Amino acid sequence: MSDAQHQSPHLTHLNQRGEASMVDVTAKDVTDRGALAESRISMSAEAFALLSEGAHKKGDVLAVARIAGIQAAKKTADLIPLCHPLMLTKVALDFELQPDSHSVHISAFCRLAGRTGVEMEALTAASVAALTIYDMCKAVDPAMVIGPTRLVEKSGGKRGHWQAAPAQAGAEK
Questions:
Q1: Which residues catalyse the reaction (predicted)?
Q2: pLDDT tens digits, 26-46
Q3: Residue 100 three-state SS
Q4: What pTM was computed for the model?
């Protein structure tokens, strides 16, 4: 069968027979694309103090979370069905300690020049970084809460620039 018989003319994960398939992006233009995602992990005062003072028995929690997030972004196509494998040109994670709420705000940025966006890679990086913090700190606080996790901004592609509305103040605590 030809590609036309397997792929819908619209960007969808369903082919003409209604079966799941990877979107064919061959005809799309290569553009510079970027995406910024964020997540948060909230924890007890004890866990936050160990993390922020670098006194955790497992070592530098944020350094390990940064590496885990970068690795996860590079492996997104192995984790999320129907995602395209991408040659990322940049993955960056930043952590902002928020003492008032005993939380860590995680920002993950991904970039490439390609035919499809990097939103899933940025979201995966932020999520895995939060999960890594949880894994390394769970002995001190198994009741940590992860979230919200969301796409904040994207650029490139047919739709150009998009930015989410600012998070509500109550959602940050």
A1: 135
A2: 778 888 999 999 999 999 999
A3: helix
A4: 0.85
